[in-house]
Specification:
10 helices, elongated, transcription
Length: 196
């Protein structure tokens, strides 16, 4: 009978996720993972598999948590336009620029690994499709609420909103001025979501 784990799995996964997020996949060594997790190599790999398996698990859980958060946000929002605006401006809201420089784990990973790791490309496509579906629902609802022009195609608009947000994430990651990022976000929203 296997021994029960002697560590908090959620704490370990959270610490490992932070290490990957801060350093990227290639920039995170086994030693970094051991230090972040507080586990020995045998325990870490015995519980989670090799580095790639651990990373893919962390990435999937990150994506699923973001999907649940976005769906819950839309369900409880008074107006859907608030969710769309918050989705675009969220990554650039920190006036220090620190959050923007950290970026998004999925976007960072997609830029680093999509060409070389098929599983990452597949996960990015899956996650972005799910986000697009939620944003499409948000655009449709915003149209019913009179906040977005009814002539717009909801899915095309949702894809454009996602593309715009990802562009802001990339610009923030490279250190673009936070005030300029905020102005770009507002211009993007004004262009993509006309009220009539």
């Amino acid at each position: 009978m296997p021994r029960p784990r002697q560590f908090d799995e959620e704490r370990v996964l959270s610490a490992v996720r932070a290490a990957f997020w801060d350093n990227g996949y290639a920039g995170t060594s086994l030693e970094d993972l051991l230090k972040a997790s507080g586990l020995g190599k045998g325990s870490l790999y015995g519980a989670f598999g090799d580095k790639k398996s651990l990373f893919l698990r962390v990435l999937r859980e990150y994506d699923e948590a973001n999907d649940r958060m976005l769906r819950a946000w839309l369900e409880r929002a008074e107006r859907a336009i608030e969710v769309i605006r918050g989705f675009v401006t969220g990554p650039v809201r920190d006036p220090s620029g620190q959050q923007a420089r950290r970026g998004c784990l999925l976007a960072n990973t997609a830029m680093e690994l999509s060409v070389s790791v098929a599983e990452v490309a597949a996960e990015a496509r899956r996650s972005y499709a799910s986000t697009t579906a939620v944003l499409t629902d948000a655009v449709r609802r915003a149209q019913r609420e009179g906040d977005v022009a009814p002539r717009l195609d909801p899915e095309v608009t949702a894809r454009a909103v996602l593309a715009g947000q990802l562009g802001l994430i990339v610009l923030g990651r490279v250190g673009q001025d936070p005030a300029a990022l905020s102005a770009m976000a507002e211009a993007l929203l004004d262009g993509l979501l006309p009220p009539f």
